[in-house]
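Exercise 7. Predict the joint structure of the components listed below.
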Amino acid sequence: MAAEKWVYMVTAQTPTNIAVIKYWGKRDEVRILPVNDSISVTLDPDHLCTVTTVAVSPSFDRDRMWLNGKEISLSGSRYQNCLREIRGRAGDVEDKEKGVKIDKKDWEKLHLHIASHNNFPTAAGLASSAAGFACLVFSLAKLMNVDEDASHLSAIARQGSGSACRSLFGGFVKWEMGSKDDGSDSIAVQLADEKHWNDLVIIIAVVSSRQKETSSTSGMRESVETSLLLQHRAKEVVPKRTLQMEEAIKNKDFASFTQLSCADSNQFHAVCLDTSPPIFYMNDTSHRIISLVEKWNRSEGTPQVAYTFDAGPNAVLIARNRKVAVQLLQGLLYYFPPKSDTDMKSYVVGDNSILKEAGLDGANSVENLQPPPEIKDNIGSQDQKGEVSYFICTKPGRGPVVLPDQTQALLDPETGLPK
Amino acid sequence: MAAEKWVYMVTAQTPTNIAVIKYWGKRDEVRILPVNDSISVTLDPDHLCTVTTVAVSPSFDRDRMWLNGKEISLSGSRYQNCLREIRGRAGDVEDKEKGVKIDKKDWEKLHLHIASHNNFPTAAGLASSAAGFACLVFSLAKLMNVDEDASHLSAIARQGSGSACRSLFGGFVKWEMGSKDDGSDSIAVQLADEKHWNDLVIIIAVVSSRQKETSSTSGMRESVETSLLLQHRAKEVVPKRTLQMEEAIKNKDFASFTQLSCADSNQFHAVCLDTSPPIFYMNDTSHRIISLVEKWNRSEGTPQVAYTFDAGPNAVLIARNRKVAVQLLQGLLYYFPPKSDTDMKSYVVGDNSILKEAGLDGANSVENLQPPPEIKDNIGSQDQKGEVSYFICTKPGRGPVVLPDQTQALLDPETGLPK
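Solution:
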């Protein structure tokens, strides 16, 4: 390797994911090893994703990272673990056109620039760290020509953020807790790709919150230390539920999928409540959305919509098909209309072609919505404007990809600094 | 027994109680037998009680009952079970002055008039059925000269409403779940009387709610049928916790009392959340009150206030002594001030002499309250007026008593009809 002034870089896009069988509790805090298996749905990266550009150059004097345009420290152990693991697996790289030649052993001396960007608000509590660490590991693996499959990469991403391991695949993904002390068998595997069950439509209600939330890292530590229900859940409940969920996904059995998703989300929040001091992630708006969905499902006789809530008040609603999703959106907008000065296209984002299907693309169309017929008593007798910040319409999506188009890179190809 | 026109009656007062180790789940729906032991504190009947007058007369042609002035049906099995059990144990009664002589065997033919009144709003979710059934059974036992101790009467009251059995005693009471199929050993026993730990001060926040609540009867049935955590709680968690709570009460160990009360309240609500569909009794206001108490307890190093929530959003806060209660009330009123047109004496009821001690008996005194120093981040940055309907200040109290003063009777001594 000569001391040329080249900058060699790779840009990748990685999806976020939402667990339908929840991860809550580590058996090893350092290696990030969970107390139970978990299962997730990967969300369409067109609507929710992280894009990361990683660059290497002999001219870089230290590792640096920019997250959403702002430089952040890489000194934390989570970043350091991912960087060390990836560097340890780096291969030879040659790009004759650019005059780049990196020998496997050079990676220990070369420095990296990393720029990462989420196409959704980080603060919205939408698992930005999952997509972020998955994208970091995936893009570095491509840059460094790491010869490992996605499951092996998932075990590295896991050391950045547990749920990140599930973002290495599209579709439906299982994180196997593993049994080895070194965590080498605590990896993600794909259960089915995103085409397997492509009727599903996902609507996320980003719920306004005035409560400062407990981080999931400290929350799950406190649950492990104090909840008398967590170990019972991990050992007795989740193993059976995981098998049932795998079957439900395999058979596209929406009734079972819904029953298991809702029960597991509620049980995860039950364990949070059983923690001392108790952790409340859902708020009254979350509860109202659950009531709305439960009533609708009961009135239809067969489940139409599944719900699941992560470590925050946002509702992730999975509709069995597009028609149901349209009705669901109408119901949601009836109960949670936008504030009067809000443009519908900024109140329903992601795949907002659904607005037209729901007849909600015109002016005053929300005011004309009728209450869903199944709701006899008032879930929302009072004005609930402002309880939901916005909705995202999306669907199950693909896993990580390299973005070959240089214009999508977040670093300047000459300087290696953020554009 | 001649067909004279006498009316013979007894008036009694019975307290309500709040569980600190919760009853949630029946193993026998008919006999009302619980899945675990529970422990409660009896609340001072001066502030929260039921008064019941029971009358018998040869002139009555059927059993009748009036609750809070309104005639209600006695045909429900809960009333019928209590009436049958008490009648089966009736003794001879003679009141020479009134010319009353009732032979044991006559009770099967004589009819009863019953009038009952709560000195607190029934709708407030303050265990009115517990005090009500306890008072019904206690007053009938006195009327009919039933020769049974309070524990045996508790087993009858239990068949009206499970938690009613704990209202047969003052102070600290344990409901032993028992093991017999017929429920004869599922009785309440007194752990300590109300004088044992008389430093404690209890402040109840009656929280406004816009949600229709699930009744505890149907809620616990759904939990037994669907929660995968309930049996684990009943079999593995509560037995140990009950022993620890008995010790804490015996030793007046406020730190343990608080830890156990709060953990058990939270776990009961966790089981409700683990029910399908999930049951939410606490709301955002309940959560805010918990955060406030938890922060204060942590900042003091040693617990000052315990909290517990029954099947509703109301907070029952137990302060270690009067001084702490005064500070607690100041903090609560800072975060949850009354609406501007509310008189303080109607916003803090029960023992409202505490208002003067808190310097809150004058005009504008609430506006002058300072935020509690330990609260650094905002629990209540927004206007929370109206979130709490009112507060009740009370303390542990005595068990049932007969009220000999005829002016307190709810039935007319001549007609046997409501006054």
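Discussion. Chain B touches chain A at residues 210-212, 226, 228-229, 232-233, 236-237, 259, 262-263, 266-267, 269-271, 273-278, 280, 283-284, 287, 290-291, 294, 298, 377, 381-382 (CB under 8 Å).
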